[in-house]
Amino acid sequence: MKKFIISPDSFKGSMSSIEICGIIKTKIKEFYPHSEVVEIPIADGGEGTSDCFIQLLGAEKVCIEATGPYNEKLIGYYARTGDTAVLETAMFAGLTLAEGRLNPASTTTFGVGTMIRHAVENGCREIIIGLGGSCTNDAGTGMASALGVRFKNKEGEEFIPTGATLGEIAHIDTILADRFLKDCKITAMCDIDNPMYGKTGAAYVYAPQKGADGEMVLLLDKNLMELADTIKSQLGVDVSEIPGSGAAGAMGAGIVAFLNGSLKPGIETILDLIGFDDKVKDADIIFTGEGKIDGQSLRGKVVIGVAARAAKKDVPVVAIVGDVGDGAEAVYDMGVTAIVSINRVALPFEKAKARSKKDLADTMDMILRLMKNRVI
Known about the structure:
The chain is α/β, with parallel strands linked by helices. The protein has helices at residues 17-31, 49-57, 90-93, 110-121, 141-146, 175-180, 202-206, 214-235, 247-259, 266-273, 276-279, 302-312, 349-352, 356-372, and strands at 3-6, 36-39, 60-67, 73-81, 84-88, 126-130, 150-152, 171-173, 185-189, 262-264, 285-293, 317-324, 338-341. A six-stranded mixed sheet has the order 3-4-5-6-9-10, sandwiched between helices. The longest helix has 22 residues, at 214-235.
């Protein structure tokens, strides 16, 4: 073996993709000390996206102050290379920022808009936004407000909507935002295809994970439906059925409606931007992975994106994962050669995550022993 590629997603809640790369590389070098090891940590829109670009592209880390999901002041950052900025929604509206006080009816994406504004004011003309890991359900209205979109109720009073008040929007004015963003290309990285509302929409599918009970889900879904109607009647855009419009609490819909942006699969956007195809030339094997692989992994996740590119170059792909769920075997038809779980002992997640780094190292040791001795 002369060339190894390591290109995993993070294991949510336990290891970042950068940490995973480091552990796997260390083990590879124990068995193949003279091999070339290329680390390509991937985050396809969620937490860690900016860090990946900072490492992969040598991008500048731009620090800013903005407000979090409950309007508290936070320090965050985004990645910048040339006139391109890569931002993550999770930086100022992430689920971890609301731990212990989850309430998607009250949280806002205003801080995300502040981050976009900062990038544009400082010369960025291509904005790439990762939509993963949000604690919000405001359809990006907070973000839009920070960029100059004005929302008014029936009484003509201007306000910044949240998930609980989207239904109160009677008038939308995008003139200032259109002017501010007129020379910008905005792309949202989105690895889900859920619509804005309905049984498979933002509220029903994702709001419970953000703290919503059954009653709140009904309210949030109703408000999203009403907002979609308002957007269609006033802005002439039907965002309700756009695949991915339900991403990040329907922020996907807001990107399209309020910022004239587009939604694209996160993994494809990232692999193109980092020149993945060139990096894997002449590779002998690729190690990828994610926290859990199952039927959902077929919908634009990192493992499938990496495997699809690798298949074109006939490079074997081993997916190192935490859990293996129902439907995972379907990935074998999409370029994955083998799936290996690092879970060595049956434990609840809270206990398993504490030993995940050692378990990953031990699992790689086992795989590499098999390879070195040519058992596989």
